[in-house]
Amino acid sequence: MAQFYRPKKTTVKRQRINAQPVVGLDHQGRGIVRHQGQSYFVAGVVPGDEIDYTITGKHQATCERIRQSSEQRVAPPCKYYQQCGGCDLQHLSVTDQRAHKQRVVGELLQKYGAISATEMLPIIAAEGWHYRQRARLAVHWNPRQQKLTLGFRAKQSKTIIAVEQCLTLSAALSELLRPLQHALAQLDLVKQLGHVELIDATVPQVLLHLHGAVTELSAADQQRLMQLSEQQQLQVWWRVGEALPSPLSPEQELPRYPSASGSIEFYPGDFLQANAALNLQLVETAVAWLDPNTSDQILECFAGAGNFSLKIAASGAQLTAVEGVPSMVERLQAQAQQRGLNIKAVHADLDQPWRRQKWAQPAFNKAFLDPARAGARQVCEELTKAPAVDTIVYVSCAPDTFARDAGVLQQGGFKLRKVQVVDMFPQTHHIELIGLFSKE
């Protein structure tokens, strides 16, 4: 009988350390403390704090007491801050949050690729509160207590924190939380609620994600939701799995989201930027860096519903816009045709080699990337083999994968010319940024 070696799990002895300074923040916004040559990461503290902490794991620690507060520390205004896992930087002043995000981008570029941008531009920022126009809420039904909990996940936990107001949601969405929780608790299908999405569009949208074999709403549930819709002046949609959302009322039109090229038609559940005001500046800036014109053949990767596509194509450039979600490809193509824009919308998996695909045959001279947090390594590797591409604009929501991909582009002969951070997510450690690359 074969015997396999199993290494013993490393256990870290819990140890209390007192009166130590926080010397910095990591890219996730956690404080950095040092003990016996090791760095440990502590949530909820800021540089300049003097704290007592307990070592809980490899490079992990928890704050037990703040002995002396830093000048950078502020009192979090949200009453749910200590429990809710949503806004993890409320204890840091907005000015210092923005300086930290600028610093993180520079540090990660150095770490992953020894890259220095030719130009690090000032951060683009706006309001620090009530900016979110989209949110995903967790739902839990307790059959014993006959109670519905609607809110956000707790810090490092699956527990749901019931929230009746949110300081980062738009006023319209924040005011909806209490009546929405009451209405959902009355539904016959309450046990089949998975989660709920809220979107502050031309009319507030509520999307109910259901699980199980739901093919239609009961007459009673339709009546209850119709009453909610009328009282709160909103539209309700529901979906099961990955199917297209179904409207509560067949007369409902698709909502529209403000964009730099007018407004974009979307289905609730489509990806949309949460910060609509800064999204307008993001699109204007990124497309200006791309500098599209009528002689350009442009490849756009991860096009979504057309947030950037419609603005790029308005220049008269020929645009091939590639997206992995078929329904979004169809809507992008339809909106391009409505506006008379030269966009070829393509459904493809960009995590696979694609340069020999039929849709990739034009000699693209520019590329535009807006990937999810996983980044665009495969796309970047392909672009370094595309001889005609000399300009790349990369919009990222994850500076670590952006830095990794920037290293790939650098090895392929591109230079990072400039970077600009966009503070799309104040009160959180999340960072949005734009990078411009061109051939050496």
From TrEMBL:
Q: Which Pfam families match?
A: tRNA_U5-meth_tr (PF05958)
Tell me a GO biological process for this protein: rRNA base methylation
UniProt keyword list: 4Fe-4S, Iron, Iron-sulfur, Metal-binding, Methyltransferase, S-adenosyl-L-methionine, Transferase
Which residues does S-adenosyl-L-methionine bind? 273, 302, 323, 370
Q: Name one GO molecular function term.
A: 4 iron, 4 sulfur cluster binding
Query: Which residues are named in the active-site annotation?
Result: 397 (nucleophile), 397
Entry's InterPro entries? MeTrfase_TrmA_AS, MeTrfase_TrmA_CS, NA-bd_OB-fold, SAM-dependent_MTases_sf, U5_MeTrfase_fam
Query: Which superkingdom heads the taxonomic lineage of this protein's source?
Result: Bacteria
Family, as annotated:
Belongs to the class I-like SAM-binding methyltransferase superfamily. RNA M5U methyltransferase family.
What protein name is recorded for this chain? Answer: 23S rRNA (Uracil(1939)-C(5))-methyltransferase RlmD
The major lineage groups are: Bacteria, Pseudomonadati, Pseudomonadota, Gammaproteobacteria, Alteromonadales
